[in-house]
Write a structure and sequence with these properties.
The complex is a heterodimer of chains A (301) and B (460).
Chain A lengths: L3 E10 L2 E11 L4 E5 L6 H8 L7 E6 L2 E2 L8 E4 L11 H11 L4 H14 L15 H13 L5 E5 L7 H16 L3 E6 L2 H7 L2 E6 L2 E7 H8 L3 E6 L12 E8 L4 E7 L5 H11 L2 E6 L4 H10 L1
Parallel strand pairs in A: 3-8, 3-9, 6-7, 7-8
Antiparallel strand pairs in A: 1-2, 1-4, 4-5, 9-10, 11-13, 11-14, 12-13
Helix pairs in contact in A: 2-3, 2-4
Chain B lengths: L2 H14 L2 H29 L3 E7 L14 E5 L4 H9 L6 E5 L10 E5 L5 H22 L5 H7 L8 E4 L5 E4 L1 H35 L3 H5 L4 H41 L2 H17 L7 H29 L2 H29 L7 H21 L6 H6 L6 H8 L6 H29 L9 H9 L3
Parallel strand pairs in B: 1-2, 1-3
Antiparallel strand pairs in B: 3-4, 5-6
The chains are: A alpha/beta (301), B alpha/beta (460).
Chain lengths: 301, 460
C-alpha cells in the first residue's frame, strides 16, 4: 500500500490538456521526484493532490482509500510561488497558518519555538515579513510547511531562490524529515539534487508520464555501453577493436583518457579481455548517464 | 476553533489593530464636524469685515430709510461721482457707490450700484430687496386708501402646516416629513458608503492574498469558499465595529455637550442674561453691540426658543418608529454589503493588481450610484413607482428602502424586498465563489468576461 497514489488523472483547461492519464505511486518514507519541463503539468498534478483543484476524471488515493478533504491536514505544501502576508508579523503568521492546518495554539507555539531555535531565527518572530530578506522569508516558509509534522510533504521547486548554503541546509532537512518517517514528493528542475536525494522519480512531459522508477535503476537502464578508461600512453593513438569503438581520446603527459563504446554483440568480459590485451589499463569504469542527460534525452525524443 | 472562525479572526484583528483604523475612526466624525463648522466659522469671519456703501440719493426719498446691517453700512455720499470713481481706481474710498436718481415706485431703472469690485450677490440682494420694500411702501401710500398696508399684511398670512400621521390603531401622531427624509438619507448614505468602502476593502484583501501568492498555501488548508466568506464576514465586523465606535463617540460628545449646556443655563443665569441684554440694548441703540453681549443675546434667545422646539423634535423623533428602522437598517446593511462584497471578492480574484480592477468594478459602481440617485429622488416621493421598484430590486433595495422606511412601508413589501435580497446574495455568493476559486490561482493575463463565464462552469 502506498501512502499516496494517483490513478489515471485527466485534467483539461480551456482547449488544453494539462494531465493526460497520469498515474503515480509514492512509496512510504521515500523522496519521490516529480520531474518535467515547464508546463508539463507538474503543478496541476500537485494542486490536484492538494485538493486545490479537482481532476476531470481519475482518483487520488490516500493510504489506499480515496482521498478526503480531511486528509489534507496531513500534507505540508510548499508552493513554487512562495508567498506570505507581507504586513503580518512572522510569528503571528506562522501561528495562524499552523492553526489553519489544525494545530492547537499551544502545540503550534511549542513547535514554532523548536524550529525558530533550530534555524536560529527566534529574534525575527516579531518582525513583519517584509522586513526580512528573501532567503529569510524562504526559511520561514519552509518552517510553516513542516510545522504540523505532516506525513506527506510536497515541495514544488524547493531550491529556487536559495543560496548554496541554504540549499545544503534544506537538503539536509529534507533527508532528516524522511528519516523521521515523512514521505516527500518534490518537483524540481535541479537534476543534481534529484541524484542526491531522490529515491524514485516520475518524469512528465507534455501532460504524460514518460519515465518512472528508481533513480539508480533508471540510470543503469540508460547506460548504453559507454566506458571510460585511463591507460598509460604506450602508444599515442588508440585504435578501435573488435568489441569496441573509440569515441574520444584525451592525451595527457603520462596517461591517456579514453571514452569507448562497447559494441552491442559483445558482453563486458570480452570487452575487458580485449582492452587488457591492447592497453596498459590504470582505471576502468562504466559511464552512467546523469539524470540531466536522461532528462534532456527523454524530453527531446 | 473552526477554520472559518480563524480566518474571520485574522481578517478582523489585522485590520482593527492597525493604527490607521483607530485614527480614521476617530478622525472621521471630527472631520465631518469640521466640514460643517468651518463654513459656519468662515461666514462669521466675513461678517466682521464692514463694507461701506456711499449713497447719493437725488430723490431724497430713501437715504434716511435705508438700514445698515452688520456687514454693509450705508453712509451719505459726501463727494461727487467722479471723485468716487477716481478714488476707486486707486483702491481707496468706499466699497460701493449707490446712486438713486428718482422715485423708484414709478421708475425702477433710476437706481445704479457702482463698485471697483465685482458686486457680490449678497450685496445686490441686500440693496435691491430694501429698495423694493421701500418702493412698495411708497406705492401703497400713493393709493391713499386708509389702512391698506394693514389689509395687505393681513392678506399675506404665514401658514405652518402640521403633518399628522394616523397609525394602525387610529392614533394621531405628529410627523415631520423633513425629519423622516433626513433619517432616511443618513441611513442611505451610511449603507452606500459602507458598500463602497468595505467592498473595496474585500477586493483589495483578495488581491493582496493573490499577489502575495499566499493564497495557494491557504487553499491547501481550507476551502476557497471558507477563505472568501471568512474575509467577507471579518471585514463586515470591522465595519460594524467602526459604526458602533462612531455611535459611541458621537453619543458621548453629544452627551457631554448636553450636560455642559444644561449646567451653564440655570434659571438664575437666564435672569442675569436678560437684564444684561436690556442694558446692552439701551446702551447700543443701533444694535451694533460689542461681540460679547451680542453672543449672550443670541444664546439666551436661542435658549428661550429652544425648549419647546427641542421638545417638539424629541416628540417627532419618538413618533418615527426608530426601533423598526434600526432593525431593518441592520438587515439591509448586512444584506447589501454581503451582496456586493461577494461580487467585489470575485472581481479581486479575477485580476492580479488593483489597476486592472476598473473594468470589472465599473458595472458595480454604476449600479450602486444608480441606487443612490434613485434613493435621493425617492426621498421626495417615497411611495412613487421609482421608489417602489427600486426598493424591490435586490441590487438597489438596500439603498432605496432606507429612504422609504421612515415614511412607513407595508410589511409585505419589506418581506418581499428582503426575501429577494437574501435569495440574490445567496446566488451572487455562489457565483462569486465559483469565479473566486478559479480566479485566485490564475495569474497573468487579465481575463475577459467570456473567460469568467467559463470559470463558472469549471468542475471543482
Amino acid at each position: 500500500m502506498y501512502p499516496l497514489e494517483a490513478r489515471n488523472l485527466f485534467k483539461s483547461y480551456t482547449g488544453h490538456l494539462a494531465l493526460d492519464d497520469v498515474s503515480i505511486k509514492v512509496p512510504e518514507q521515500k523522496v519521490y521526484g516529480l520531474l518535467g519541463p515547464n508546463g508539463a503539468g507538474k503543478t496541476t498534478l500537485i494542486r490536484i493532490i492538494n485538493n486545490i483543484t479537482a481532476p476531470d476524471s481519475g482518483t487520488v488515493l490516500w493510504q489506499g482509500r480515496p482521498m478526503q478533504a480531511a486528509d489534507i491536514a496531513h500534507i505540508g505544501y510548499l508552493p513554487e510561488e512562495r508567498g506570505l502576508y507581507k504586513k503580518m508579523k512572522v510569528g503571528e503568521q506562522a501561528l495562524y497558518l499552523a492553526r489553519l492546518k489544525g494545530l492547537s495554539k499551544a502545540d503550534a507555539r511549542v513547535r514554532l519555538k523548536y524550529w525558530f531555535d533550530k534555524f536560529d531565527i527566534a529574534s525575527w518572530s516579531n518582525k513583519k515579513l517584509e522586513e526580512l530578506s528573501k532567503g529569510m522569508q524562504q526559511k520561514i516558509q519552509f518552517i510553516i510547511t513542516v510545522l504540523h509534522e505532516p506525513q506527506l510533504l510536497i515541495f514544488d521547486e524547493p531550491f529556487s531562490g536559495f543560496d548554496p548554503v541554504n540549499t545544503q541546509l534544506l537538503k539536509e532537512e529534507i533527508l532528516s524529515l524522511k528519516n523521521k518517517g515523512a514521505t516527500i514528493l518534490f518537483s524540481t528542475h535541479n537534476m543534481s539534487s534529484v541524484e542526491e536525494i531522490c529515491d524514485e522519480i516520475t518524469l512528465i512531459n507534455q501532460s504524460k508520464v514518460v519515465l518512472e522508477g528508481n533513480v539508480q535503476q533508471i540510470r543503469q537502464q540508460y547506460a548504453d555501453g559507454i566506458y571510460r578508461l585511463t591507460i598509460n600512453p604506450s602508444e599515442r593513438i588508440a585504435q578501435s577493436g573488435k568489441s569496441f569503438d573509440i569515441l574520444s581520446q584525451d592525451i595527457q603527459d603520462n596517461k591517456s583518457c579514453l571514452r569507448i563504446q562497447k559494441k552491442a554483440d559483445f558482453n563486458t568480459s570480452i570487452l575487458l579481455k580485449e582492452l587488457s590485451e591492447q592497453f596498459d589499463i590504470r582505471s576502468f569504469e562504466e559511464e552512467i548517464p546523469s539524470m540531466n542527460d536522461i532528462f534532456i534525452q527523454t524530453v527531446k525524443s | 476553533m473552526s477554520k472559518i472562525g480563524l480566518i474571520i479572526e485574522r481578517e478582523y484583528l489585522s485590520r482593527v489593530k492597525k493604527k490607521t483604523f483607530l485614527i480614521l475612526t476617530i478622525l472621521t466624525p471630527v472631520l465631518l464636524a469640521a466640514l460643517i463648522a468651518v463654513p459656519l466659522l468662515l461666514s462669521f469671519i466675513k461678517g466682521s469685515d464692514i463694507k461701506e456703501i456711499a449713497v447719493s440719493d437725488n430723490s431724497g426719498m430713501y437715504i434716511s430709510r435705508l438700514k445698515s446691517n452688520d456687514q454693509y453700512h450705508y453712509i451719505p455720499a459726501t463727494e461727487s461721482f467722479e471723485t468716487y470713481k477716481q478714488k476707486a481706481k486707486e483702491d481707496q474710498g468706499v466699497y460701493a457707490y449707490l446712486v438713486i436718481n428718482g422715485n423708484l415706485s414709478t421708475d425702477t431703472a433710476k437706481v445704479s450700484l457702482y463698485s471697483r469690485k465685482q458686486i457680490e450677490m449678497e450685496l445686490k440682494d441686500f440693496v435691491s430687496n430694501q429698495l423694493k420694500d421701500l418702493a412698495r411702501e411708497d406705492k401703497i401710500e400713493s393709493y391713499n386708501i386708509p389702512g391698506l398696508k394693514k389689509i395687505i399684511d393681513e392678506s399675506n398670512p404665514k401658514i405652518s402646516l402640521n403633518t399628522i400621521k394616523w397609525d394602525d390603531e387610529g392614533n394621531e401622531k405628529e410627523s415631520s416629513s423633513e425629519l423622516a427624509m433626513a433619517i432616511g438619507m443618513v441611513c442611505t448614505m451610511i449603507i452606500y458608503i459602507f458598500i463602497f468602502a468595505y467592498g473595496a476593502m474585500v477586493m483589495s484583501g483578495v488581491i493582496e492574498e493573490k499577489s502575495n501568492r499566499i493564497v495557494e498555501v491557504i487553499v491547501s488548508s481550507v476551502k476557497p469558499f471558507d477563505l472568501m466568506m471568512g474575509k467577507i464576514i471579518g471585514i463586515a465586523m470591522v465595519g460594524l465595529t467602526q459604526v458602533l465606535l462612531w455611535v459611541v463617540l458621537i453619543g458621548g460628545i453629544l452627551g457631554i455637550a448636553g450636560i455642559v449646556a444644561k449646567d451653564s443655563v440655570t434659571p438664575e443665569k437666564m435672569e442675569k442674561f436678560s437684564t444684561e441684554i436690556v442694558s446692552t440694548q439701551s446702551n447700543q441703540p443701533t444694535g451694533m453691540g460689542t461681540v460679547q453681549p451680542a453672543d449672550v443675546q443670541a444664546l439666551s434667545s436661542a435658549q428661550k426658543e429652544a425648549e419647546p422646539t427641542i421638545r417638539k423634535i424629541y416628540q417627532m423623533v419618538s413618533n418615527i418608529n426608530l426601533g423598526e428602522i434600526c432593525f431593518w437598517f441592520i438587515l439591509y446593511f448586512l444584506g447589501g454589503y454581503l451582496l456586493y462584497a461577494s461580487l467585489f471578492a470575485a472581481v479581486g480574484s479575477a485580476i492580479d493588481n488593483q489597476e486592472d480592477a476598473t473594468q470589472f468594478t465599473m458595472p458595480l459602481t454604476m449600479i450602486v450610484l444608480f441606487a443612490l440617485y434613485a434613493g435621493i429622488y425617492s426621498a421626495s416621493n417615497p411611495d412613487g413607482p421609482l421608489a417602489l421598484w427600486c426598493s424591490m430590486i435586490p441590487f438597489t433595495s438596500p439603498i432605496v428602502m432606507m429612504v422609504r422606511l421612515p415614511f412607513g412601508v407595508p410589511l409585505w413589501q419589506l418581506l418581499v424586498s428582503f426575501g429577494l435580497l437574501v435569495i440574490t446574495f445567496l446566488l451572487t455568493t455562489k457565483i462569486a465563489s465559483k469565479i473566486y476559486r478559479t480566479g485566485i490561482l490564475m495569474y497573468g493575463k487579465k481575463p475577459s468576461y467570456k473567460e469568467l463565464w467559463k470559470w463558472l462552469k469549471f468542475k471543482n
